[in-house]
Structures are given as structure tokens and as C-alpha cells.
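Lesson 9: reading folded outputs for more than one chain in a single document. The general rule is that every protein is listed as its sequence immediately followed by its C-alpha cells, and records are never interleaved. Here is the first one.
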Amino acid sequence: PLVAGPDREVDHGQRVVLAVRQQRLAGHVADEDRAAVLLRRNLGDAWGLRQLYLKNDAVCHPTWSFKDRVVSVAVSKARELGLDTVACASTGNLANSVAAHAAEAGLPAFVFIPVGLEAGKVLGTLVYGAVVFVVEGTYDDVNRLCSELADRHPISLVNSVNQFRLEGQKTASFEIVEALGEDRPLDALCIPVGNA
């Protein structure tokens, strides 16, 4: 990965290691808009934990999805690499997130969905201006078609195979350490991300 050294800050002011050289990520969440890390004594007591902190990561991102964090880095890297289009296969959350971040980055988005997807999920993608392709078949068929397109054209595929999406997962831990203080030891950090 590319290191943001002592003279280079990335995203939210944290000096971190990310595979993106840009100062500002697509879909950047300003410090004052980030979800707080909150001590939850009652739940901690119920689980036998001395200190339990929770962070509701969904409320501060463009589409209110945990996918936003990882897509932000992947779309930013696509822009940095000079790719002029992003694409994904999705059944909802990823489609909305890719469309939102692509719009903010000024990139067109191609979103491939299986036929029969709920209208609300499709609308959440269309409002950001993505081109939506409805494919007859299963999600696996949709994913295969999208992958073939990305193999043949200079398009950044923003599905789980995108290595830069993985970079976005670690930004949550940086925010938590920043909020609690670097000198506070953490016994464990659990971040439920689904198929992020």
C-alpha cells in the first residue's frame, strides 16, 4: 500500500496507511458529521464487559449503508488510476453506494441488477444518475456479466473482489481509535460488515 507519511494526511486528518493518495475520498464524511463512539454501560454489564463502546456507522454516510465506507475508497482509487467508469453487480445496498460515490466523484456508474429487484432499491440507485442494467437471471449471472464487462473495458469493478474496497474497511478502526484516544488499549474491535 501507499503510505501517507508524516507530511501527508488522508481523509479525516488521521495519518493512516491507505492505498489512495488523494487527500479527500469520494463521499468523505467530515469530522463533525461522523457518528460518535458511545460508552454503553448497561449492555456492557449484561455481557460482562467493563467498557463497551458502540458506533452506529450507517447514519453518517450518503446512503446510510455500511457499504459506503468501502465504496468510498474503491471509487476514489478508480478516479486516481484514471478509470473513467465504475460498475457493480448488486441486489441493493452496493448499487446505491456505488451510484452515490460515483456521482460525487464525477464518474459514470453502471449498475447491474437481477430482474425483480424491489422498486425502492432501484430508485435509490437511479436518483444518483447511474445507468442500471436489469439482467434476466440470478445474482451470480449478473455478477458474471459485470465481471466480463470489466475484463474487456477500462472499468473499475467495485464488487467484493476489488482490493481497494478492503482498504475502506480499516478506516472504521482508525476513527474509533481517534475518538477514544491512541493511548487507550482495546481488547477487541468488532466491526460487522457483511459482504463489505
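And here is the second record, again sequence then C-alpha cells.
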Amino acid sequence: VIGALGGILLGAWTATKQYKWQDRSATLASLVLISTPTFVIAVVLQIITIRLGRAFGFQWEFLGETGVRDAPFIPRMLDRAEHLLLPTLTLALPLIAVYSRYQRNLMLDTLHADYVRTARAKGLTKRRAVFKHALRTALIPVGTLFAFFLVCLGLLVLRITHPTLPRPFRCPAGKLVAAAGAATKAPMASARKHPS
């Protein structure tokens, strides 16, 4: 959710600044984040957090694996939320980059559409035309993509939490991939041989 919201906002903003330094720097940052593996992003964020803590003279309490164990409910939950900050940011940054690229391209298509130009010609401000006409239209495909990701995530959680699901929810290819992984037959996991 954080990745989708951040990516939509960033993509819409960079589309309104097409070919300016804001657009180019956001594009560069997005491409770097998309190309970088998640574990590298995690280590880089830890290094940045430690260096910022040293530069400003304080120790980040939420770095590391230890936390408050024998405490009341609210302090324990706040401590867990602090410990989830960097992992959440690590997973959200690549998603922000992906969604921002989608949203930017969709916004550029709609910003040059006839109905947006007509709205501007009728006297709407650029901001109002962007938010009322262009952004609303450009959100439809991104909303569909977000809904698809949510359904996939829900099915994954459902499959993990309830391994004995009824037959329509089970996939026979899953057994094939699991067996191929256990037998370390990598080509079988990527392609299934058709019966002759």
C-alpha cells in the first residue's frame, strides 16, 4: 500500500515536470531502485541509518534484532513498529519505483489528451485539470494493477495459512515445481514437458 501510494504520487508529480531535472532525477532513482536487489537496498539503508545516527549524534534504537520483551502491550507494539520501519522501507522503495514509472507514463498519455486540453481551454487551472481530469483517468490502470497484486498476495497468504484447501484452490503445477526444487532439477521448474 505504501509503495502504491508513494509511486502514484511520485509518478503524477514527475509527469507534470516532464523533461525537467525533477523528472530526470526521479527517473534515474526509479531505475536504480528497480535494478537493485532487495537485500542490497536493505544493507544500504542500514548503512545510511547508522551514518545519519552518527552524524546527528544519536543511536538508533530500532536497528538490530533485540527489542522490548517484558513490557506492557503498547510499548511492545511501538517497539515492534520501530523495528519494522527499515524492512517496510526496503520493500516499499522498489514498489514506489515501479508504480511511479507506470503512473508517469499513464499521466503523460492523459495530459496530452483532448479532454484535458479542452478543460484547460475552458479556463480550468493546470492544477485542477491535472487532478480532476488527467489523474482520475490515469488511476484506472494503476488501480487494476494494485488490485491484481492484492489478490495475488491474498491467495499467497491463504495458501500459506491453510495448506489443506479444497481442490479448486490447489494448483497441480505447484507440486511439480516443489518436486523439481527438491530434486534440484532447475529446468523442470521453468518449463514443463508436453506429453507426446
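What the second record shows: The radius of gyration is 23 Å.
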